[in-house]
Amino acid sequence: MTVAGRPAAEPARELLPTATGARTRAAVGELLRPHRRLALGGFAVLVTATGVGLLTAPLLGHIIDLVAERRPADAITTPVILLVVIAIAQGVTTALGLSLVARLGESMLAGLRERFVERALHLPLDRVERAGIGDLTARVTGDVSVIAEAVRNALPELARSVLTIALTLVGLAVLDWRFLLAALLAAPIQFHTVRWYVRRAVPLYAAQRVAVGAQQQQLLGTVGGAATVRAFRLAGEHTGRVRQRSQAAVDLALRGIRLVSRFYARLNLAEFVGLTAVLVTGFLLVRNGSVSVGTASAAALYFHSLFNPINAALGLVDDAQAATAGLARLVGVADLPLPPEPHRPAEPADASIDAAGVGHAYVPGHQVLYDIDLGISAKELVALVGASGAGKTTLAKLVAGIHRPTNGAIALGGVDLGALDHATVRATVALITQEVHVFAGSLAEDLRLARPGATDGELRSALEHVGALAWAEALPDGLATVVGASGHRLTVAQAQQLALARIVLADPPIVILDEATAEAGSAGARALEAAAARAIEGRTALVVAHRLTQAAAADRVVVMHDGRIVEAGRHEDLVAADGRYAALWEAWSDQRRS
Amino acid sequence: MRTGKDVLGRAIAAQWRPVTAGSLMAAAHQAGEALVPVVVGVVIDQAVSGGDPGALVRWIAVLALVFVGLSFSFRFGSRAAERAAERAAHDLRIELTERVLDPRGGAETGRLPGALVSIATADAKRVGAVNIAVTAGTAAAAGLLVGAVALLWISVPLGLLVLLGAPPLLWLAHLLGRPLERRSAVEQERASHASGIAADLVAGLRVLKGIGAESAAVTRYRRTSRDSLAATLRAARAEAWHDGSVLALTGVFIAVVALVGGRLAAAGDISVGGLVAAVGLAQFLLTPLSIFSWVNTEFAQGRASAARVASVLSTPPTVTPGTGRAPAPVRGHVRMRGVAHAALRGVDLDVTPGELIGVVAPNPATATALLQCLGRDVDPVSGSIELDGVSLPSLEPGDLRAALLVAAHDAELFEGSLLDNVTAATDRTDVEPALTASGADEVARNLPQGTATVLAERGLTLSGGQRQRVALARALAADPPVLVLHDPTTAIDTVTETRIAAGIRKARRGRTTIVVATSPALLAETDRVVVVDGGVVTAEGTHADLMRDHETYRTTVSA
């Protein structure tokens, strides 16, 4: 509960890393490798589809030639039948190619997001907390969806457009190489336009995302706190804040559309230059007899049909930029090294805890714990007591192996935490904090996170053990009820009981409870206390307690003050000793005495 | 009462200037796009076929004019349309915020904050976007018209073929797409599930770490991710085949146009250039026609969003505000007679000016109902509540809340510094006494920049006890004539709580204060405690007396 124990409040955040461009490309290559055949197949089919489609323009040109040569009307029947065949072939190959490209993109995306989540969940908590959990959430939602969007919409369109452009240029060259030269006159303008656009768009869209995020935050604060706003008569001020944030987002959106409209205006210029060049070339070539009118028409039709794919491909620059940035942020986390594991991991001998000379500072120079010596024997129940800010939560986290102490050493079962591998630490000691989270999904799935193979019977008996079975079975679908963010809402007390049931299922020899009952209100607190007592039965337990009834029930009470242990002993002895604990107890029971 | 139709209609009407300008310019743009193949045909006809350089220069100049026209009209048309959309969305956002914050309340009942925010952002945006759909629709109509005229001018039978053939073609494409679209929507929803699960696991990271369930969570996520992948692939395949069919249909259509146009040209009814233009126009016309179906979808979405916006805007208020002014100065005499609402069954209570009174309700629902009545979030079904002899419903809500402030247990902190939060509801700059009394000074001392520290994420980076102390400081700093505090110290340790209780007493000296709580530390400081049980006042006395004599009180308070 100390302020220092909440590094999120510290001003400087150390965000999680972002991969370099080279590393991102390499990571994409790694993701692509297992799907090489699919990639080649998809590419080949799309090339075929585009190539078939390009036969349309010369066939139309051929029809024009037939007409110009005043052939009989029936002569055009064959090319028209070919046009129909081409249309159908193009449709089928395009469909096939698009599904293959989608399969490739989606499989790679799934691979990436799985690798990301796996790494993210295994990162040391203090590393994540230094960055803020929000950083991770933003990557797993925002960045993944930007990339998914790009894979789903931009990738197929880009693949088709680029192929169309490339093959159309080839087609122009086949008609006559001079048509290709003419068409390429547009390229420098397009190249310059894209560079011009990207330079402006990237910072603008970044600012826009920030502004939209700020607007969202403000609305959440204002709307979520509507009752408070009304009570304190802050409606005017809050409406003003929303107006300001919304206006800022609107202004940036309009700046964005101005930029986009200028972008397309410049592309229009390129279209005109290219089209004129192709027409003039056609004029000259027809005049000197190198090509027919039909070929010149086909060239013009080819170039005109490039308008859409070129605009589409260049318009995807934004999506590509955003997706690349998102990709770099995902790869950055997926590449993070895990903390080193000991070479020869030891096994704890028993369920004891031993802290020797432990001190801790979250920020160098800002010491929150000093010289903690605390031994807890197996199956002992120790209560940690003290005012807010005394360092109880920090000590709890250190013992749970969440943070490594700055000084001193902590041993579980006689083995230093550093000599235990990660999995062993987690199997040995469990920590429940005030922070409750009900995982989205069924209640049974939530519980099975603690013991994946648990049978329904085991789940029920765990719930029963913490007094939660009655309400759990009374839920609309019993244990299959969907709970969490988008499901059935559980009360804070129910969520905490669920957390205790997870402990029963995970069955660790050591349990640390940090104020797990504080938010439940007085009546709920008593029920939770009883549930917690049953959950920690038979385990070594360190309980951070504000309610002194919990302390009175412990084997030993440890009193902390300003980062130090100031008293320790049995409840009765401490009360008799007339020290700090006695004063606390006096105040506590005074108010409760008649 | 407002309907979705009203909301939609007003969103367009209020922006009629940019919508009209945008429509005209977008129409000009479409017309320009339609003219490009026509001019190309003319160039082939007049210049390339005939080898006439003069005609080439003339018609290239015309082409340049067409390009200048279409480029500028797109540029300014799209800006006008976007401006109309953004402004309409902004106006709705403000209107929704004002409705939610309205002193009469009611708008947020039964709606989660997230859902309301989504209405004020996503739905407002969709309603605004209808303005873009209007301009695009107008433009498509113009493009269609120009294309049709050009085609009919080239050849009446060919023109009729394209104009009558294109709509059934698009309709066929639509029919082909519909089952796929429906299926794809379902699949997409399942696909997005994976990202929701990932975010949820990350949000619960500390809990996962606490029980060592990281690997179990990864396994679970991988399963979800694979399910999502399968669903996405089904959707993508359906979409790909839909795209392919549309492509094939379009190709066949062009072939038919080429067949008929070629025969007409062979018969000498139309020129070669006319044939080129007709083929180009047949391709072009598919765009405005498909814009119509897009406009249709946008309007359907806009209507659905407008209905959601309207349902918030037209939520009936929970109380009818009066217009009376509070007596000045407010002495702080609160009188309740036979108040019945929800768990209350006829509460009689007199709080004399300047009194510090405790209210203990063994059933939390009773406390909530009492606070709702005092804060005028609801009006009691029967009975009366008076402040200095004036009934609450007759008062102007702002006036009432200035005189009688209910500081709720779950009061929110807002974005801003700790000091900003504490001074939010007061003009005074000296809030030191309020900070000291509430123990918020200690919170500030532990923060990196003291009272100037910005409370990130609306104070969620603070612990529960720290948040409560800042909220209490804000209530004390507001210094209303009557202050109602609900469970202000539940997350604070006993020692600090005792100090805060004394602080409250000192800060509120001479002013009426009602503390609704079950904490003995707070109740011990009050002048008198009232027990409300079973909906009525069952006991009254000092904390010490009640602890001695009243069984229910003792068990409620000394939990």
Automatic annotation (TrEMBL), chain A:
InterPro entries: AAA+_ATPase, ABC1_TM_dom, ABC1_TM_sf, ABC_transporter-like_ATP-bd, P-loop_NTPase, Type_1_exporter. PROSITE patterns: ABC_TM1F (PS50929), ABC_TRANSPORTER_2 (PS50893). Its main location: membrane. The keyword Nucleotide-binding applies. GO terms for molecular function: ATP binding. It is found in: Cell membrane. Residues 40-322 form the ABC transmembrane type-1 domain. Residues 353-587 form the ABC transporter domain. It is a multi-pass membrane protein. Keywords: ATP-binding, Membrane, Nucleotide-binding, Transmembrane, Transmembrane helix. The chain crosses the membrane at residues 38-60, 80-102, 263-286. It holds the Pfam family ABC_membrane. This is ABC transporter ATP-binding protein.
